[in-house]
Amino acid sequence: MKHEHMHDKVGEEDLSMEEKEIRGWKNKLVWSWILVIPIVILMVAERIFMFEIFDMKTSIIIILALGFPIIFILGYGTMKSGFRGFTSLYFNMDSLIALGTFVAYLTGFFALFDLVQDYSGVASMIMAIFITGKYIESKARGRASQEIKKLLELGAKSARVLRNGKEIELPIAEIKIGDVMIVKPGEKIPTDGVVVKGESAVDESMVTGESLPTDKGVKSLVIGATINQDGILYIKATKVGNDTFLAHIIELVEEAQGTKVPIQRLADKITGVFVPIILVIALLSFFNWFMFTGDLSRSIGVAVAVLVIACPCALGLATPIALMVGSGIGAKNGILIRKGEAIQTMKEIKIIAFDKTGTITEGKPKVTEVYSKVGEKYLLEVAASLEKLSEHPIAKTIVNYANLKTYKKVTAFKILRGRGLEGKIGSKQILIGNRTLFNERKISLKGFEAKIIDFENSGNTTMIVSENKKILGAIAVADSPKPDSMAALQMLHKQGYKTVMITGDNERTAKAIAASVGISEVIANVLPEEKANKVEELQKEGMVAFVGDGINDAPALKQANVGIAMGSGTDIAIEAGDIVLAKSSLTGVVQAINLSKATFSKIKQNLFWAFAYNVLAIPAAIAGVLHPIIAEIAMAASSITVVSNANLLRRRKI
Amino acid sequence: MKKFKLLIEGMHCASCANNVERSVGKVSGVKSTSVNILTRKGIIEAEDSVKADDIKNAVAKTGYKVVSLSEE
């Protein structure tokens, strides 16, 4: 990776650029109104109340003199960028305003010789209104990105670290991986790390949106920018700078805000050709009016009105501004929208498929019962000796439960993916696993069947253990549903979604868990690599969203129309899924769906208004029923409306 | 394939962003361009043969300036 500038600098430049822009427009706004108010007074007095302050020529000269700095000094940027369009043929919004005000301003000179009506005052007012509109719009845009700004400001500025046994305070940029940081109660954790000493609760709400503090002890992972609540923590830094969780989130959200939502394609196409088309229409309107009325002044007025009323901005801003506000609100709540497309697809989703372990359930299995005819001790000894060699969560649970001092030596150990384990202890062939495994090996469960069914019916995953093809017993392991799973699923059902649970567990266990949270459809006995296929099958019935952890379920997340990856804190695989939840709860899924729908409906509203505005306003200007000043006010209002409407998204409860 | 990330100065309306997309899109080897008027950022996917200067020139042609650029 080659960088001409450091990435974190991009963020800062970006911010100050925006602030510079707002400040710039504000200055221009003040000056333009100081200059334009005398023009307005003069015009109103002389042309509406017919109250002559100066003779006509003098007043035109005064208006031209006051107008010059408005249009050519305050409006320099707009004029320059607008007229450049005529040479480069890359026209933009400014081209319309520049041409409109320039033509109108010129009429002032011709009016001195009584050739046409004087529009130079109108030109100044158009520019002043344009500048005002830009100022209001830039302020509203600033509001639209406030959530991201808050994320950027979240990072700690300094940290207290232990170096050579001494506590020293260092700026955050000087923290290196491996430094041990000391974080007192109420302080921000400077960067991502692992707790090496101490115990405390940490408020992670700013990153995960989860309001309850998380307990942390030795070996717990902590996220930079979260706040230590009540104990002193000694934390070894594991990630710094642009590698931190927060930095990743910011980058991801910013990138997502730059992605396109399919619905905006038409608007983009129109904005691309909009300005040249309006230029042609303005020209045609001018000739038409002149041909039919012979009134040069009127024809110029109409052409100027057409030029300044047309607003590609409202069209072009409609989608990105809503996406920006929506993804900002999401980020605040631990919902990261990675692709703009997802919020549009979400509307079409009919089926939501869930992975079981870690998604619906806690993902922390516990041994609930051991059943054996040879004695529990022997069974656990054999089982734990094999399970010790596996990384699977259930294996760890059994090992912990058995709590052996010494393990038996296992040879010919093999992991049977999705089924269990096999190995040899001495000359005895040991098999641990699920029903599928024992069916495959044609080992009879006689004498244990009833107990196993009993385990399964109460939602336990059952690990059956055999020695030389003879069953020793079974270990029941249960993984309880997360506290909010049931409520969240109920909300999804209320919204009319069909929910499906996909799991590697056997039918009975899966059904018991599913029933306990209210899911009616279960696809059980699915090997990890088959999950994507099952999603594909579900897609025959309608669009499918899949919710799972980003690590094991990556293919299924990809296969689904919308993949929602879930994880808590630093555990999440941020690259998987179209939407990533930084909190590990199904309530997050409901929120993500609500947010997507709300954002998409804002986009539709915005596009509707922007289209409607142009479709109504341009013909009205052509028809000559709009004075250029009214046209300019309408134009400024249209883009402000679109931005403000997007900001209203914040009021929606998700 | 590589990805350019740009920060562009001077764009202030949606048609500006559109102009940049159009101009950069014409550079041979550029696969996709996405320029966001709000973040002022552009993401460009292009073949490895495309140089940073090609992109910068294409942006300059439309009258805007690349403030920073990174490739990955």
Can you tell me about this structure?
The complex is a heterodimer of chains A (654) and B (72). With 654 residues, chain A is of the alpha+beta class. Helices cover 53% and strands 17% of the residues of chain A. Chain A is built from 23 helices and 23 strands. Chain A is elongated. The two termini of chain A are 38 Å apart. Mean pLDDT of chain A is 89; it is low at 1-12. Chain B has 72 residues and is α+β, with helices and mostly antiparallel strands. Chain B is 31% helix and 38% strand. Chain B has helices at 14-25, 52-61, and strands at residues 2-9, 30-35, 41-46, 65-71. In chain B, strands 2-3-1-4 form a 4-stranded antiparallel beta sheet, covered by helices on one side. The longest helix of chain B has 12 residues, at 14-25. Chain B is globular and about 30 Å long. The model of chain B has no long low-confidence stretch (mean pLDDT 89). Classes of the chains: A alpha+beta (654), B alpha+beta (72). At the A-B interface, strand 1, helix 1, helix 3, helix 5 and helix 8 of A face strand 1, helix 1, strand 3 and strand 4 of B.
